[in-house]
Amino acid sequence: MKKWIGLVVCLLLVGCGKSEIQQVSSQDTEVNMIYEQWLKEFTRDDGVIISFHREDLEDEKMLEFNIELGVKGFGDFAYLQNDKYHAIYNSEEDGYTLEFILKDDKLIVKESHGISYLHTNLSGEYRIKGG
Hints:
The protein is of the alpha+beta class.
């Protein structure tokens, strides 16, 4: 009898473990699909390049970005919002804000407050570099 109880408990534990693994795996797949859409380089006609990176960041809502114009540039982290196609960067120092919105095959940037680090208005539409 003890063997049967042990076998049932073992099967229940293994069965629950598989369910959790499948659930985590599907969540990972969804997160990876969303990041694939972000992890590109976007450019504007005046030469501004925005690129997104993700290198083993612990917070799954965090995206690393770099913005370049010629030899000048800066980078930091933006945080994905609930819809996953909207990310926001807020500078604590001066209230400078960048909103990044993925829409179809373009990136829309809205810049507000503070002084742009590149001394140009970054607001506008960017297309996938090389696309």
